Amino acid sequence: MPELPEVExxxxxxxxxxxxxxxxxxxxxQPGVLRFPDAxxxxxxxxxxxxxxxxxxxxxxxxxLDGGEDLVVHLGMTGHLRVVGGDAEVxxxxxxxxxxxxxxxxxxxxxxxxxxxxxxxxxxxxxxxVLPALGVEPLSDDFTPxxxxxxxxxxxxxxxxxxxxxxxxxxxxxxxxxxxCHLAGIRPTRRARRLTxxxxxxxxxxxxxxxxxxxxxxxxxVDDYRDLWDARGSHQEELQVYGRGGEPCLRCGAILRRxxxxxxxxxxxxxxxx
Length: 274
What we know:
The protein is α+β, with helices and mostly antiparallel strands. The protein has 7 helices and 11 strands. Helices cover 27% and strands 23% of the residues. The strands form 3 sheets. A 5-stranded mixed β-sheet has the order 2-9-5-4-3. The two termini are 27 Å apart.
């Protein structure tokens, strides 16, 4: 599933293409992709609306429309957003097409249909429970060592489970939790509240470091992720542990162990992660 760096990459590209543009039409071929409202109200509400800003919050993309509402997209596992010419071939599993005032279209395709599209004010979407409450942004100034301290110290869950909880820290997923834990030298199976102050500080720095590098590399492509132009990210070339179970640790040479933690396949080094 695309995580913060991948979604940030798409949001930045969309910002350049959509801000100042106006939607002139909308078609929905798979109503199930819409979480709110229904297809008829969605298409009527989107047509004629201009885009004032594009932002990312956690793993969600927000296109701010005139009138205070947002077009919100969650890419799910296999979702792709594309801006293409109106006469471009429609790829398989395209569920949403939105015409722009310059003749191009914003399209959303999703083979496995885990993606979500919605339109409304943020307050309304949260009230309808189609948009969850999201925690602190890990690349923002609000994500301080003290903020992470509070999150870790008040839970009995594993470090991995705590970091995957989007209500605590928004945007982290399986890839970057494993990578951050390895960089910090902390096993993801540890109980979060038992980390020392020094370990929590190391984890805070590691989270920011791995995310910053992954954003600079336009995300990690290990499966379906592509950017707005259908190009792969390059951060997969930098991964230290994710997807490398059974291979040597690039730091110490020990064989990386694979196990399930918090319901997710997890890879760590039992030699250099304590």
